[in-house]
Amino acid sequence: MIRLDNIVATYTTQRGHVNAVDGVTLEIPDSIVMGIAGESGCGKSTLMKVIYGDIGFPLSLSSGMVDYGFVNERGEPVTTENIRREWFRHISYIPQSSMSSLNPVVRIRDQFVDFPATAGRKKEVLAQVRAFVPKLGLPPEAIDAYPHQLSGGMRQRIMVAMATFFQPEVILADEPTTALDVVVQKSILLLLLDLQKEMGNTIMLVSHDMGVHYQITQKMLIMYAAKVVEYADTDDLFQRPLHPYTLMLINSLPTIGDDRARHGLPGSPPSLWEMPQGCRFAPRCPLATALCRKEEPPLLEHERGRFSACHYAASVPELKQTLQAGPRLSEIAHDTAQLTADVERDV
Amino acid sequence: MKLAQYVVQRFIGYLLVLFIGITITFFLPRLMPGDPINNYISQVQARAGQSLSAEATQQLRDSLAELYGLQGDIFTQYRNYLARVVRLDFGPSFTYYPEPVSNILLDAMPWTAGLLITTTLLSWLIGNSIGLIAGYFNKRRWATILEVVGIILYPIPYYILALVVILLLAYWIALFPLSPTFLPGPMTWNKAVSIIYNSFLPALTLILAGFGWNVLAMKALAVATKEDAYVQFARLKGTTDRTRMTNYVFRNAMLPQITALVLSLGFIFNGAIQTEVIFSYPGIGMTMRAAAGAGDYNLLYGAIILTIFSVATAALILDLIYPLFDPRIRLGG
Ligand SMILES: Nc1ncnc2c1ncn2[C@@H]1O[C@H](COP(=O)(O)OP(=O)(O)OP(=O)(O)O)[C@@H](O)[C@H]1O
Ligand SMILES: [Mg+2]
């Protein structure tokens, strides 16, 4: 289990300090796929950086730390303090753009063995890598190529291969497929899921695609303006959201064959520099009252395993009834079998 | 197969460039006013007073025309000229008559090549290393000091730099000779040491002059390259600074610098004049200046053809080796 304890992550800018993650406390069970969603700028990538332990100017941790729930070689518990030494051994990262994340003038095999973990035993590791890549649907020669000789999909498979090769406990993926076309996106996600099932890692996936989240995640974290507003099992969260913002995000989900005007998200999130008093979502919230504008709701466990930061969490299911405009969930694929079918059909 | 095609293509291009360059050097002087033979004859006349008869002048004119390939119409001249260039036969020198120009150039070439190739490579290596470190660690204060070396050295005009070096190391602290003396005779260990010792000052000025630019260029390239996504990803892989600085930043940032290096090696015979004149160094530059001063057309021709040849050859070499450094270059494309 990974524990985040009151994380406050601050960017130092010329204008001053700004908290891009502002008090996040979470427990993430092992071996699940957790999705993170929220509008642009809400702090998803910053939270991923904090969990990865990539903290350095201009980002600093003003409060809190992450406890990863596993120990390093010396038997010490791994926390924010020492996570950097475990990069790619115990925690790995799939970057957004595979196109530009590989060194263009060096063969891929050489980029596979310059981890600190492979120092001094490159030959041996390379042999293992060669045995490993066919599992990712890559021809074995792919690792002898230069990046520009591979397609975008193959390159992203290489990134997945790097992220999974050392069998880390945690894999972070910040919009890992945005640069790819839809069919390839799905096949990469499937691949990642297959490997995750086999190895039992925890995956944290940032995506703007609520459909993808619905299909592949077990838990969902919804962020709004540097805060967590809802955290729950994916099924529960989609069926019966307990935060009006989650509801609006789900309503913005595109459905195939649905030409009703979708309820996008009216308005825009507040600037991190001028946070409203009270609930940060209040200015856009159909349920907001004087209480909301005065008092910031804490993230509470309203039902077992269901966290929401809303004074009126209990009224959100009602709101959903009245809105009635969302996509019928039955129309969206909700398991990987469907995703596989999609991929096969598209191919 | 692709490789062979690529090499052949580049080679044909190379021959074409040479041909065009050589052709231009043939026609250009002929478009200019003044006639080398007339110039020469008037020089001779000036020396001989008015005692030269018209007949003797005509005889001199004919034999000079024959000597310098100026007989017949322009196409005959051009054909003969091409044939002679191919045989590296530029005729005899005016000033060192009857020594053939090619001998003079062959004697001077190793001096220039040795001095300039060594100093160009050294200033590239030192300058780029400093620039790389200054750029890679550009957020650290000590790295700024490294960059200052480049900022200070780069804008200083060469002759001032040379003057300062001479004052410092040949005059105040008389460590090195002001102008070199080279032992005649076959190459021995002693002679080699004396050549290095005597060439030290000109070499130092050339290294200092070339190096500031390399520091600044490499620093700018490294600063930009280290923000590239693949360097950032390498950082998140946990690679060491050393790995990232060399295998990631340098391997990419050096590409334009390789181009600059090879091309500047091609220009060594043009760049040598100032240094060689200041230090009385017996290379191509000195030879060219002497030839220009004395109106020694054949020698000048030979030297110009030599520079055309060396620039074109450098460009060819660049085309041939560049794909080794940048695999994205498509062969045969
Ligand atoms: N290097 C930085 N310096 C200063 N502020 C930053 C920096 N990086 C991000 N921010 C700010 O922090 C906030 C959160 O950014 P973050 O990248 O975490 O958002 P995000 O949720 O990942 O957005 P997106 O969906 O667009 O990726 C934004 O307001 C952004 O402007
Ligand atoms: Mg982001």
Explain what you see:
The complex is a heterodimer of chains A (347) and B (333). Chain A has twelve helices and twelve strands. The mean pLDDT of chain A is 89. In chain A, helix 6 packs antiparallel against helix 12. With 347 residues, chain A is α/β, with parallel strands linked by helices. Chain A folds into two domains: 1-90 and 166-347, Rossmann fold (3-Layer(aba) Sandwich), CATH 3.40.50; 104-161, no CATH class. With 333 residues, chain B is mainly alpha-helical. Chain B is 77% helix and 0% strand. Chain B has 14 helices and no strands. In chain B, helix 5 (101-136) packs across helix 12 (268-278) and helix 9 (200-225) packs across helix 11 (241-266). Chain A binds chain B through residues 52, 54, 57, 84-85, 87-88, 93, 95, 97, 100-106, 110-111, 114-117, 146, 148, 162, and chain B through 139, 228-230, 232-234, 236-240, 243, 247-248, 251-252, 255, 325-328. The structure holds adenosine-5'-triphosphate and magnesium ion (MG). Magnesium ion (MG) binds next to helix 1 of chain A. Residues 44-45, 174 of chain A line the site of magnesium ion.
Describe the structure in brief.
The complex is a heterodimer of chains A (347) and B (333). Chain A is α/β, with parallel strands linked by helices and 347 residues long. Chain A contains twelve helices and twelve strands.
